[in-house]
């Protein structure tokens, strides 16, 4: 395997350029060039020169009145290309299949989209009950274990924006949180336990546990969940299942160069 430090030393401009883009991607908004130079410990002249090239190519947007720089349209197009290539599905599918083989229960990989979750990967275990979830299916995130695992990883302000009032809450079987305060208490429990649970809120008699998969900035990129017949798995075993999920989530996070929970 090539020595990465050696590779960086041979192409310092490329390394500095990518560091600048990564820094802008994790910033909450456009930042001054001087702040970029300080944060990355790079010469200001180098940062200005690279920002000028990136702006000319559309990867960086210069706000002259504010004297700040943010990501440009070309950087967004890279993100769109990442989505089109479905790397999460490709990287996650074999891991989910291995999880099903180990546990003998159905498992899935899910992403957050607004107030819903979307199922990217669904692996059914043999001789297990059929599920309402499938690839492409959308379900309310606050009712699913996978959704709760991701919602618990969001900043409070974003959570409030997603659930501003009682009208944002839907139910399937008359159960689940119906107010923002109820959801906050539920997500506090998720953070304390380190995993999320759901019992009969999607399908009566079926329960799920889930853990979050974080991206490079620590944001929820996805969640991994296992769903099982409540009669076949006792409640105390949920923590054991979650422990199995955490190992898979850490591996998927590593594969997408994310941050382990």
From TrEMBL:
Pfam families hit by this protein: HTH_IclR, IclR_C
InterPro entries (UniProt xref): GAF-like_dom_sf, HTH_MetabolicPath_Reg, Tscrpt_reg_IclR_C, Tscrpt_reg_IclR_N, WH-like_DNA-bd_sf, WH_DNA-bd_sf
All residue ranges annotated as the HTH iclR-type domain in the record: 11-73
Any one GO molecular-function label of the UniProt entry: DNA binding
Record key words, sorted: DNA-binding, Transcription, Transcription regulation
Domain IclR-ED: 74-258
Transmembrane segments: none
GO annotation, biological process: negative regulation of DNA-templated transcription
Family annotation (PANTHER family): HELIX-TURN-HELIX TRANSCRIPTIONAL REGULATOR, ICLR FAMILY, HTH-TYPE TRANSCRIPTIONAL REGULATOR RV1719
Annotated protein name in UniProt: IclR family transcriptional regulator
Originating species: Cryobacterium roopkundense
